[in-house]
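Why do we bother with a discrete structure alphabet at all? Because it lets us treat a fold like text: something you can write down, compare, and reason about line by line. To make this less abstract, here is a complete entry for Stage V sporulation protein AE. Read it the way you would read a sentence in a foreign language you are learning: slowly, and without expecting to understand everything at once.
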Amino acid sequence: MLAMFFWAFVVGGLFCVVGQIMFDVFKLTPGHTLSFLVVLGAILSGFGVYEKLIDFAGAGATIPITSFGNSLVAGAMQEAEVHGTIGVLTGMFEVTSSGISAAIVFAFIGALLFKPKG
């Protein structure tokens, strides 16, 4: 069990290191870095690597933002098998809609409860 925690820490940390290098060395904005990491997760998922990474590192691979790219591709592929081409579009939204909806609701609640700096 200790090894599982270790590898989750290492893999999750490596994703963080990639993001930090993009900030410090390449001087990319947070939006560019975020987009790159989502696309990286999607590409790794498309080649079948990300699922193996999840099996190996557990939460170290499912918690970072790269997992969102993996979810998009996995949902698209799953629905494409059932519904064809239209499933590619609907599958992405079906798998990720609950997380996005929760983020919107909690951001709204946070905005109501706290005074923004302005």
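What the structure line is telling us, in plain words: Residues 2-113 form one domain. The radius of gyration is 17 Å.
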